[in-house]
Amino acid sequence: MTDSSRASTLLRDSSGDPTMTQASTTETPAAIRADVRDLKFWYGKFQALNGVTMPIHDRKVTAIIGPSGCGKSTLLRCFNRIHDLYPGVRYEGQINLAPENINLVEKGIDPILVRLLVGMVFQKPNPFPKSIYENVAAGLYVRGIRNKTEVEGRVEEALRQAALWNEVKDRLTKPAFELSGGQQQRLCIARALAPKPKLLLLDEPTSALDPIATAKIEELMDSLVKDVTILIVTHNLAQAARISKFTAFMHMGNLVEFGETEQLFTNPTVTQTQDYVTGRFG
Amino acid sequence: MAGGFSERRIVATAKVQDLTFAVLGVIVLFFAMAMLATLVADLLIDGLGRINAQFLTDFPSRRPEEAGILSAWVGTSLVMFVTALLAIPLGIGAGLYLEEYAAKNWLSDLIEINVSNLAGVPSIIYGLLALGFFVYGLGLGQTVLVGGMVLALLILPIVVVATREAVRAVPSGLRESAYGLGCNRWQVVWSYVLPSARPGILTGAIVGLSRAIGETAPIITIGALTFIAFLPPSPIQAAPPFLNFDWLNSPFTVMPIQMFNWTSRPQAGFHVNAAATGVLLLGMTLIMNGFAIYLRYHLRKGQRS
């Protein structure tokens, strides 16, 4: 590679994603990965989100908590427009994704583009009925990445990031269903990580897992957050307290309180939050 | 212990109920199976002895002992080939479109109801349609192509319904995670939905084909010949382009028609021939169904149950 081409690659990289440049890796607490502004959402006539406004901080874990039916999963699923698979849904407001400030929920933005930018892991581990390798490579193939060495490299990288590499490196061609539940969920995380998403959504990723598998995934999130911005929905308050830097508490489609996790759990400003985090309701 | 006593009585009543239903079930099952077994046994006793190489390699004849079903089984095979080639891709395509692409509204509901209704339309109606439209309207004549087309129409609803049901049974989690990865609709359908639905779709297709293989009414209606002493031209030829499609335009007969024709003859020898043809037809249907079961087991192995 010539010097000039390397320079141009660097330029392209930094212009494409300024938050990833050397300068911003030093602590800049103000870095925002996504900005939710007055987000409203309807299932048919039922309004499930009543104007949610909150920031998603770059390379931090943000947790969304709240009682069943409060709209936490609904909010999460707005971020990659999975709602669009079902008829009769409607969005209003904005989720602006850095760096290009694309409004993810705008009508003119194709949901496929949104999903190419934002990765998601679901509640139930749902690997594809294919091999372990093919599962992780699936997202790369969708993005037109077919070069064998590149795919192999990125599959390994993603599996390492998901702390699964050592457990599966000798059986990459085996069916993904042969893995345990916890391993399957980490495989799903690797699958979401391989295409290097701008934002990783986790929808109660440990609710179907035993405590040991849960601990592994929590540990994994800790190490992932160096590179990836994570937004997680959890009904497990202790989990939110353990893993997140910021927490949003939702109730009946409203964002009741948003703040640093420590403050929200120890010194909430809203009584409703206090009642919830101390176990008085929900 | 009055309470204990009445609880025991509830258990006793429940046991009697279970037993009554089980006995009834066995009786019904026994009658159904006995009927079928009698029918098959009767066919086997009459026909099995008649099946030999001569029977399979001779054309029909005026003398029962010289008659064979060569033209009938070749005709059946060719017609089924055309039927499968038309009905399976069209049916899968239609089912996938209705389930994955079409907007869910009154129109798709209407189409769904009508496709299900079509599966129940008497086969002779399809025969009339084919006679009026394919044979006379399009002037295609009484050929293998028309036979295949009418049977394809007949089983199309079966394939469509089987495809829709198989596609609907694909877990929504699989779909969501595929879309969540950024797949477009075609990628989701082709790479994830279709492989998961494949066992169900193939089973439906084979059930449809095994219905088509025994159909007589529509084939008679379009006027297929009952006495054919020649074979359609071979689909493969020595000279380029090596493939030959003249067989599509050849007159034909099929095994059920041959059977029907023989049963209406007075000579007892022809009745034996008819029974033998029946055995072979049953055998072909059983083999197809067996293949469907094998496929279902084999293809589901790699999938989550």
Write a brief caption for the model.
The complex is a heterodimer of chains A (282) and B (305). Chain A is α/β, with parallel strands linked by helices and 282 residues long. Chain A has helices spanning 3-16, 22-25, 72-78, 111-117, 132-142, 148-161, 165-168, 181-193, 211-224, 237-243, 261-266, 271-277, and strands at residues 32-43, 46-57, 61-65, 89-97, 102-103, 118-121, 199-203, 230-233, 246-251, 254-260.
Task: Give your account of this protein's structure.
- The complex is a heterodimer of chains A (282) and B (305).
- Chain A has a 6-stranded mixed β-sheet with strand order 6-7-8-3-9-10, with helices on both faces. A 4-stranded antiparallel β-sheet of chain A has the order 2-1-4-5, with helices on one face.
- Chain A contains 12 helices and 10 strands.
- Chain A has a domain at 30-124 and 198-277: Rossmann fold.
- Chain A has helices spanning 3-16, 22-25, 72-78, 111-117, 132-142, 148-161, 165-168, 181-193, 211-224, 237-243, 261-266, 271-277; strands at residues 32-43, 46-57, 61-65, 89-97, 102-103, 118-121, 199-203, 230-233, 246-251, 254-260.
- Chain A has 282 residues and is of the alpha/beta class.
- Chain A is globular.
- In chain A, 38% of the residues lie in helices and 23% in strands.
- In chain A, α5 crosses α6 and α8 (181-193) runs parallel beside α9.
- Chain B has 305 residues and is mainly α.
- Helices cover 72% and strands 0% of the residues of chain B.
- Chain B contains 11 helices and no strands.
- The longest helix of chain B is centred in the N-terminal third of the chain and has 46 residues, at 2-47.
- The two termini of chain B are 47 Å apart.
- Classes of the chains: A alpha/beta (282), B mainly alpha (305).
